[in-house]
Hints:
Elements lengths: L11 H36 L2 H39 L5 H7 L1 H29 L5 H25 L5 H36 L7 H40 L31
Subcellular location: Cytoplasm
Protein name: HIP1R protein
Main location: cytoplasm
Amino acid sequence: QELRPKSLDIKQEELGDMVEKEMASTSEAIEDAVRRIEEMMSQARNESSGVKLEVNERILNSCTDLMKAIRLLVMTSTNLQKEIVESGRGAATTQEFYAKNSRWTEGLISAAKAVGWGATQLVEAADRVVLHTGKYEELIVCSHEIAASTAQLVAASKVKAEKSSRNLGRLQECSRNVNEMAANVVASTKSGQEQIEEKDTMDFSGMSLIKLKKEEMETQVKVLELEKRLEGERVRLGELRKQHYALAGTYGTAEDGEAKPAPAPRRGILKKPPLAQKP
């Protein structure tokens, strides 16, 4: 008992209840996200038109598809978790099984929380984009985080599941579907951003030669500033990831074969852009 990590100082009953409560809480968060997206869709149709309405509808539709995929993933994960407990507890109670496998239980709880949190963040980012108070990049980052937390949930479930389990196969299929839907959110966000920016910033008709030259020089200055800022943010991100992995490592195990949190995949967005060409 003294050697057990302090984070596991919970009663058996509490640990068992925490799993069920967290899975239920994640399901509620996703249901709420779906409702909020429907409200945003209605609001967008009333307050926007033309290109902006087309972009908002495409982004919100892709977010809805992603939420539906996550909802199915959580349901399947819950079924697999119940199967794991029933097949592995033997004569022990459910609470005793969770307590005995407390490391695995904590990983499962952490993964479920990450999925629910990612869904909530995605909806909030979508809301800001529709209201023109947020950044398209926020949606892209949220989509990547959802894909990463989904992989974490599958890894946590896979550790204790039988390889021949049908529920495990369904969960892996759900995970692939979530990744595909998250990629669709990224694609619709990028194309929408290009449409809006092209419409708003690429109309140079009516500008004089002097005005065009001034705009060109100002744009070159912005490009250099952004390149410098990007380099600094890349260094900051690297340090944040080092700290994240250091903290996440405390939840993994080395000898009992249990899963460690899945590292976040490298993003294509981190590639250094080519330097701006002089006119």
